[in-house]
């Protein structure tokens, strides 16, 4: 079917992709010259754009069990071909370009469904986003480096199998999941989609590695949200506990706070099991909240520009605050604002992934890194943006809005994050100059802001079975 598309980029549509015979109405907003369907799910039938408890217990600091933490693993330690699943997304696109620039042979695997979500919800990126094909062509023109494209759904195992056999990856970076907690809490159908897409997609990746590339290193993007906000320190994946006189090292308890976060918990359990049962090598990167938009690679040309979400569904806290300040909207602090999380610059996201690939897990090892560089409360972020706005002559107001989530608004939070530093991570910490840059970037594109999308619109307690649609 590759002959259906004539472009100068390398596009591969695996044989598992069959011609589409029906399209849902949300899909009609896309302009395309070809289409296909990989699942009967209405969320995957779409037209692709071509331009596409407490007892006698003692808690101790953790050591990773089994083979333990290592900087390198010998066999298969040099990955040359990297498959980036979800490479058209916010973190995935920046990562694909970074790895390509570093000399890896890169392939992007993506269903492009994230673009469909925008159409369904009536939202858009602050930045104009070129099609994946235009992006890849531009990268080739600027650098001479090719990125292969495999357009399809990893929940379709036939497609994924053919993709694995065609590209033969040494490492798989898995960003290909529905990544928004609010999206998973809109209604029943989206909660089901999130768990099906994320859990089954990841399970398919695990089976593909087992069957076709058993030495392949899986680098899976998890989330710090898997841990919740316990009243003890958060270790990196494992915790050593002495209970009634006996000691063991166990997976750190998980307390996911949305159907999205729970899907990530399920992923981690499945990956840990397959590492033990099949000898798969895997690194789980429990990532904090990412901010920023530019990396050296995405800043090379406007067609390589990354997306920046500011809406109440996909937008993250600091990015949202900068956009709100730029357009004169009060910063929307949910509830008391004491919610504390780990944060990192998108430039550190790509650096962490590269470090994980270059220093792979051992066979049978399920390795967990907490991927963030600093901790902030929502109130602290609001204060930082207010200060930065004042430096730029922007008057920034803050307002407390009812918290749509079910979460602790004041809590203890101390998460460990040393493993990536040990591997050589050089963090980009949140500074006045970076905040100035983010604010100036938001001001540059403020004419694209839809003010109706700023306030939160998804309630954790209000989720129901009836599908919700966006009024025209």
Automatic annotation (TrEMBL):
It comes from Cannabis sativa (Hemp). InterPro entries: Epimerase_deHydtase (IPR001509), NAD(P)-bd_dom_sf (IPR036291). This is NAD-dependent epimerase/dehydratase domain-containing protein. Belongs to the NAD(P)-dependent epimerase/dehydratase family. It holds the Pfam family Epimerase. Gene3D superfamilies: NAD(P)-binding Rossmann-like Domain, UDP-galactose 4-epimerase, domain 1. Residues 82-370 form the NAD-dependent epimerase/dehydratase domain. PANTHER family: DTDP-D-GLUCOSE 4,6-DEHYDRATASE-RELATED.
